[in-house]
Design a protein that fits this description.
The structure holds two protein chains of two kinds. Chain A is mainly β. Chain A contains no helices and ten strands. In chain A, strands 2, 4, 5, 6, 8, 9 and 10 form a seven-stranded mixed sheet that branches. A three-stranded antiparallel sheet of chain A has the order 1-3-7, with no helix packed on it. In chain A, strand 8 and strand 9 (96-99) form a beta hairpin. Chain B has strands spanning 3-6, 10-12, 18-25, 32-39, 46-52, 57-60, 68-73, 78-83, 92-100, 105-109, 113-117. In chain B, a hairpin with a 4-residue loop joins strand 5 and strand 6 (57-60). Classes of the chains: A mainly beta, B mainly beta. Chain A binds chain B through residues 1, 32-33, 35, 37, 39, 44-47, 50-51, 54, 56-57, 88, 90, 92, 95-102, and chain B through 35, 37, 44-47, 50, 59, 61-62, 95, 97, 99-100, 102-107, 109-112.
């Protein structure tokens, strides 16, 4: 089973700043199978990025994904108030899916 | 626009089983798989397993092997997740999610079903 480790656990930033979230895998992950989600309290997760770098339908272009192999990054170029939430990475490999433990993005 | 509508909240006794449903509204399961993901209070997301509805084949996370069964009824576009031998640690919100096969990402989520296990 591939383990995903996200860092930092909590990120404190101000609106307008740039956020960089990391997701590191214990083994190589196909870029086709790396996704990012946003979750707000009391809501289901929302797909942001699939295939490591493709934005899902309706996702603003301030969200971008990059990376390959074992290191992947979600970048939010300029934080809006509604972006403060928890973010998860997710991978698929050998018919199994795993999630990272999440990064909480909080207002500084 | 497909929506996934899940069954309502459940309260169960330890040792019993729970079965949660997930119905596709406004579309069908064709070309997708359905995953089940749970989230314990204050915790992260945990994938439990998935099913390919058109052929009825499911696979499960090792942690839940032998205790979870995922099925699907193509005629009603409904998927089911049954978890047995419930314990207090199974108290969580359970989500179904449509999983796009070619990229294995979950683009449509159900609203979640709260399962509480308590004596």
């Amino acid at each position: 089973e591939i383990v995903l480790t996200q860092s930092p656990g909590t990120l404190s930033l101000s609106p307008g700043e740039r956020a960089t979230l990391s997701c590191r895998a214990s083994q190589n992950v196909s870029s086709s199978y790396l996704a990012w989600y946003q979750q707000k309290p009391g809501q289901a997760p929302r797909l942001l990025i699939y295939g490591a770098s493709s934005r899902a339908t309706g996702i603003p272009d301030r969200f971008s994904g990059s990376g390959s192999g074992t290191d992947f990054t979600l970048t939010i170029s300029r934080l809006e108030p509604e972006d403060f939430a928890v973010y998860y990475c997710q991978q698929y490999g050998s018919s199994l899916i795993t999630f990272g433990q999440g990064t909480r993005l909080e207002i500084k | 626009q497909v929506q996934l509508v899940q069954s309502g909240a459940e309260v169960k006794k330890p040792g019993s089983s729970v079965k949660v449903s997930c119905k596709a509204s406004g579309g069908t399961f064709s070309s997708y798989t359905i995953s089940w993901v749970r989230q314990a209070p204050g915790q992260g997301l945990e994938w439990m397993g998935r099913i390919i509805p058109i052929i009825g084949i499911a696979n499960y996370a090792q942690k839940f092997q032998g205790r979870v069964t995922i099925t699907a009824d193509k005629s009603t576009s409904t998927a089911y997740m049954e978890l047995s031998s419930l314990r207090s640690e199974d108290t969580a919100v359970y989500y179904c999610a449509r999983t796009v096969v070619v990229v294995a990402s979950m683009d449509v989520w159900g609203q979640g079903t709260t399962v509480t296990v308590s004596s």
